[in-house]
Amino acid sequence: xxxxxxxxxxxxxxxxxxxxxxxxxxxxxxxxxxxxxxxxxxxxxxxxxxxxxxxxxxxxxxxxxxxxxxxxxxxxxxxxxxxxxxxxxxxxxxxxxxxxxxxxxxxxxxxxxxxxxxxxxxxxxxxxxxxxxxxxxxxxxxxxxxxxxxxxxxxxxxxxxxxxxxxxxxxxxxxxxxxxxxxxxxxxxxxxxxxxxxxxxxxxxxxxxxxxxxxxxxxxxxxxxxxxxxxxxxxxxxxxxxxxxxxxxxxxxxxxxxxxxxxxxxxxxxxxxxxxxxxxxxxxxxxxxxxxxxxxxxxxxxxxxxxxxxxxxxxxxxxxxxxxxxxxxxxxxxxxxxxxxxxxxxxxxxxxxxxxxxxxxxxxxxxxxxxxxxxxxxxxxxxxxxxxxxxxxxxxxxxxxxxxxxxxxxxxxxxxxxxxxxxxxxxxxxxxxxxxxxxxxxxxxxxxxxxxxxxxxxxxxxxxxxxxxxxxxxxxxxxxxxxxxxxxxxxxxxxxxxxxxxxxxxxxxxxxxxxxxxxxxxxxxxxxxxxxxxxxxx
Length: 538
Hints:
By secondary structure, this protein is an alpha/beta fold. The protein has 18 helices and 14 strands.
């Protein structure tokens, strides 16, 4: 059932419209002229308008133009007793969905209304799909304007149109999968499958089947033929996530597929030709792994046709304001909270943190702050609750006082005092980047388009924060020299790991949770390259 507004100055016509529409199961509202119709529209809830072409005051065409200027997206059926081809053409050109002549025939009216309401349904469905697409694109958008990110995007723009194999290396949480998806979206394979296979998450006995598929009866439990990742990714892109975790014998088979573009299913005898573009990711130094014999050197050379190193977040602090602001606004929208922004000294705190979990850790920290915040502006203490002190970068000053090894509370914020001016809110614009590179335009399609954050739903304005907060604009963060950075971070990581292990009584799993990294990453840092992995402590 729909609510239909009919606008006609003839009472007899109004009675016919009302009777016909209500018999069809619709609710009707009548108006004799445009001012009365506008009053009805102001109340909302109207799905369709049926308007006379000639009325006292404004005509039907003028009424339609007025609705468009006022932003009403409601379909209109034009009704007239002076039928002519000129009137019909003018009505359709102006935006009317149909044109009916008087006297009104019930069957014709019902058909026109049914078609117009179907148009309403399709418009709403299209709008919902458009919002979903925008949200999906927002999730896949690469956010950052630092020099390292700009250089990576430049490499991606040049590599994407080719079929060259790309190796993405970087710490966990740096967004390797996001860059892999960007390569696919910017290539001529964008309309073909993008298949992801996590080599570290697959059971050892099923990795080969996951890659190449298997025939019915190939092994116990193989009750039917199954296509593997290579077949599913035919003419598209296959992402081999954590490629360093693949067994050596499977590495040899993978190398053959990359060279010959064909393979056999497990238990099969017929070769299958495929056209697949490979993008691989790893959080290890694959060159060192291949030199030590833990990874096939020939496969490493084959995968690293275009190697891309994604720097950790601590090496590009100028990207943090953009990321933090986007995460804050998105989370606020999802939970229906009115968050105005992030205070400058809170943003400076985020820029000085180490973020061992990189972008993923920053995202979780901002989401947590938005959820727990009781003010419209995120302040420093929102990011340092008890047992969640932030690790400090050695070259960027002190942050907040951490609790003891047992996770004691952090030092409370200083007393608040009311300033003469409102609280300054950090804008979404990050500090400037070096100008040695010109701005890089992202490749098409819009994998890297600057998509504004969806607007927050209207909410009642919040007057000044409960407690005024005096802030000081932070100086732009500066980076130490590369050599000094590496030395300091190495020492800092060792200290942090030692403290975490001491706190947890040597339990690596719990220590990894305290550090915000995976157990595998912690194990790798303890063992070092070339040393066998030890079992995790439970």
